Each structure stands twice: as structure tokens, then as C-alpha cells.
Amino acid sequence: MSIAEALLSAEDFVKLADVGPLAELVRGRVEAVNMPSPRHGIVCGTVAHILLSFVKPRGLGRVATNDSGIVTERNPDTVRGADVAYYSYARVPKGPVPTGYFTIAPEVAFEVLSPDDRWPKLLRKIGEYLDAGVLAVCVLDPENETAQIFRAEQPAETLSAEEELTLPEALSGFQVRVREFFE
Questions:
Q1: Is residue 93 part of a domain?
Q2: CA nearest 62: which of 104, 13, 10?
Q3: Which range marks the domain in which residue 95 is found?
Q4: What pTM, to 2 d.p., does this model score?
């Protein structure tokens, strides 16, 4: 039976030697994800730097990048890769990082839009994150220099480049002008 035919679990997916450059597991099936452009990677690096600069000195938790796997659904399993994610030590305690994909949702997930992203697929991914327990999903649009923040049971909030992004539900005291993510 080929990978395309078999429904995989998250535990099986993490063990695959090579399914291509980038992939996610969506309801038990491997889906290819396009390799992002350098601009995308630079924005992700900036987001990670801004978050780490806030989180590390305060001893609040961990920041994961590079589409680190997050199990968002079970039976069949879905493993999504957030561009950048913040996990408090309350969710992923200090000490050695567990092996395999995290089955605990991060408090915050950042997704950086790429030219090939399509909103229907992205909205499904955002819904999965929120259903899994993510408190806020921030979608950054480098083209328009905007941020959209999605929270469970609330309408999405769009912020312009000059507005301040805050995440009181996950990172009390954190604030950054949206433009800084794109500099």
C-alpha cells in the first residue's frame, strides 16, 4: 500500500524518511506544501526574534519555527506546521523537548501568507488550530503589511502596519507594531 492510499497516524508520519521537501498530514493523508520564498522566511525569522526577545528574558516558554509539527486532529490524524508558534512552560514544561510532534497546541500560532496560499485552505488550518486549543492565530500578510488575528468564538481582527498587535490571552504585556514584522 502506498503513502497516498494509507491513512497515517501522526506517529507514522513523523517516522517517514522522506516525503518530499515540505509536507503536512491532513486527515491521515500526506499533502505537499510549496517551499516558501526568502521573503517569507525572513518574516518568519523576524517574528521568531520578536517573540524570543519577549519570551526568553521573562522565562515564559518556547518558540518553535520551521513548520514544526503540531497534531491538530486525531482519527484520522492531522499534523500542521505553523510558521512560528509560542508554547508556554505551562503547556510544554521546561526540560528536554519531547520527541515526535507536539500533541499539545501552542498558545499562539503565526502563519505568514505566501503568494500561492488560498484562503479556503488557510481558514481550515486556522479552524483546526483554534479547535485544538490555540488561543490566537496571527496571519501576517507581507504584501499589505497587515496582521489578522483569529480567536475562538470571536470575529477576526485586522490590524494595519501602524497598529499594535497584543496577545493578552497568551502573552500579557506583549505588544509590537505590526510593521516591525516586515522590516
A1: yes
A2: 104
A3: 36-66+78-182
A4: 0.86
